[in-house]
Amino acid sequence: MAPPSRRPGHSRKAQYGLFTGYVIAGIGALIGAALLAISLLEPAAFGGLRGVSIDVTSPVSRTTARAREGSQGLIETVRGYLRAGSQNAALKREVELARIRLAAAQSLKQENARLKGLLGLGNSEVEPVAITHMLGSSGSSARRFGYIGAGRDRGVTPGMPVRTARGVVGRVLETSFTTSRVLLLTDSQSVLPVRLADRDVIAFAQGRGDGRIDIRLINLGLNPLKRGDMFVTSGAGGFFQPSLPVALVEQLTDDGAIARIVSDPAAADFVAVEPLYQPVLTKAARTPVDQPLPGSQTGEEGGDAPSAE
């Protein structure tokens, strides 16, 4: 079968129409080429036309953009709802992990505080006989004792003072090979010579058996004490070094005050056992009045002891 012919035939109208189409196509091509050349040579020449076209099409563009944003927001909402369960589970795991890490950090902070306290014990002017754990203390009985993890194996002997980094705890009462029992300051049988830290006021600190101590002034009269006064060891008696913190005044009495100890044995982890401040004084205090002092001589000053004839 022969292909159809594109010739218009003998019709004048068809010939003119085809010719007119060619002419219009040529003119359009020329105009397009001219516009392309102008746009390449002068890019800003059609700025006004582009602005007008943008202004004309901007309402349609805004409507399209809003529709697109709405559809994306709806999709994200549905997607977030579908992922909410897994996200909540992940957040719960993160919160639990954060709590564990916080507890670990707090524990590490407490351990650092304890280690600093132990370092303070070792930095004392007097070299400790032993630095050991406070194993426990009695809190409900009438007597107040503490127990430490050092005994004769580390050179601990009865009478030695026991303190923490904060202050005095008591003194060693009995020793075994690996442990010792401590007479706490709050025991009713404990009596310790003390003085005010900032004034020359002498007193005795005696345990009450209830976790506090009585401050009994030597010189009775006008009570010079006030709440918050700090009492320290005076060094008298030969057991404790002077100026170790002992107690803070809480309540005034007629002959002194009721004070709270600054070093609670129940809150102590480590303690230091120190040597006796003046061993000669402690031996003299333990010697009965009807016996001569250790190393003493009788008779006139500078002479020999009289012989019995």
Task: Give a structural overview.
Mean pLDDT is 77; it is low at 299-309. A hairpin with a 5-residue loop joins strand 6 and strand 7. The chain is rod-shaped, with a radius of gyration of 50 Å. It has helices at 12-41, 47-122, 279-286, and strands at residues 130-137, 145-148, 161-163, 168-175, 180-184, 191-196, 202-207, 212-217, 230-233, 245-252, 256-261, 270-273. The chain is 37% helix and 22% strand. The strands form 2 sheets. A 6-stranded antiparallel β-barrel has the order 1-2-5-4-3-12. A 6-stranded antiparallel barrel has the order 6-7-8-11-10-9. The chain is of the alpha+beta class and 309 residues long.
- Radius of gyration, rounded? 50 Å
Derived from helix and strand composition plus strand pairing, the structural class reads alpha+beta
Uncertain spans = 299-309
- What is the H-and-E element order? HHEEEEEEEEEEEEH
Give a quick summary of the entry.
By secondary structure, the chain is α+β, with helices and mostly antiparallel strands.
Key words describing this protein structure:
single chain, 309 residues, alpha+beta, 6-stranded antiparallel β-barrel, 6-stranded antiparallel barrel
